Amino acid sequence: MSDLLAKILTEIIVALPWTLAMTGLSFAFGALFAIPLCGLRTAHNPILRNCALSLILTFRSIPPIVWLFLIFFGVGSDLIPLSPFVSAVIGLGLITAANVAEIYRGALKAVPAGQYEAARALGLPALLQYHDVLIPQIFRLALPSLATYAIGLLKDTAVASTIGVHDLAFSAYRVSQETFRGIEVYAAFGLVYFLISLAMAYATRGLDRRLRERISR
């Protein structure tokens, strides 16, 4: 049992950084790409709106594992050499962008119209209106949904093991095959996912509390 525990801990130490990096990079890439996508989604031009909607529906409708296969075995094999990790970040990042763009759009709609009018009444440049008045409110409104999605993304990274990324799911499968102790191995790795998700949830609560205090000043 001690040998099994030592092996599990060793694999977790090696695989955990890959899982966290994949989650963080995919979320960051998606959150940034979601900004222009949300802008197009809320544009006055119906052509731009429909183009953005088509992209969002495409990214959200196709399962993550299919995107990863298309990018790694398609683009990564025939056009541009891509490692399994990079392919996973791109695939999960595109899906994240589509979902986060809709979260941004919902937050924009949730801000009372009076807040936009008040920001304009201050006489500040448009950039400062968003930075000082609107963005803190938009981000606070979007934060719960963003946190929920980020936790879901952490779990979705497990599909990257199918293209060879040495993440927690990949390591769990490998250890279970070597030791024939699947229940213990997957329970241990599942506990790691649970603890990370719990930490993310608590961190989100703290950030939301600080944002509320900042806005109320």
Automatic annotation (TrEMBL):
<feature type="transmembrane region" description="Helical">
    <location>
        <begin position="185"/>
        <end position="204"/>
    </location>
</feature>
<dbReference type="GO" id="GO:0022857">
    <property type="term" value="F:transmembrane transporter activity"/>
</dbReference>
<keyword id="KW-0029">Amino-acid transport</keyword>
<dbReference type="InterPro" id="IPR035906">
    <property type="entry name" value="MetI-like_sf"/>
</dbReference>
<dbReference type="InterPro" id="IPR043429">
    <property type="entry name" value="ArtM/GltK/GlnP/TcyL/YhdX-like"/>
</dbReference>
<protein>
    <submittedName>
        <fullName>Amino acid ABC transporter permease</fullName>
    </submittedName>
</protein>
<dbReference type="GO" id="GO:0006865">
    <property type="term" value="P:amino acid transport"/>
</dbReference>
<dbReference type="InterPro" id="IPR000515">
    <property type="entry name" value="MetI-like"/>
</dbReference>
<keyword id="KW-0472">Membrane</keyword>
<keyword id="KW-1133">Transmembrane helix</keyword>
<keyword id="KW-1003">Cell membrane</keyword>
<feature type="transmembrane region" description="Helical">
    <location>
        <begin position="79"/>
        <end position="101"/>
    </location>
</feature>
<feature type="transmembrane region" description="Helical">
    <location>
        <begin position="12"/>
        <end position="40"/>
    </location>
</feature>
<keyword id="KW-0813">Transport</keyword>
<comment type="similarity">
    <text>Belongs to the binding-protein-dependent transport system permease family. HisMQ subfamily.</text>
</comment>
<feature type="transmembrane region" description="Helical">
    <location>
        <begin position="52"/>
        <end position="73"/>
    </location>
</feature>
<feature type="domain" description="ABC transmembrane type-1">
    <location>
        <begin position="16"/>
        <end position="204"/>
    </location>
</feature>
<dbReference type="InterPro" id="IPR010065">
    <property type="entry name" value="AA_ABC_transptr_permease_3TM"/>
</dbReference>
<dbReference type="Pfam" id="PF00528">
    <property type="entry name" value="BPD_transp_1"/>
</dbReference>
<dbReference type="GO" id="GO:0043190">
    <property type="term" value="C:ATP-binding cassette (ABC) transporter complex"/>
</dbReference>
<keyword id="KW-0812">Transmembrane</keyword>
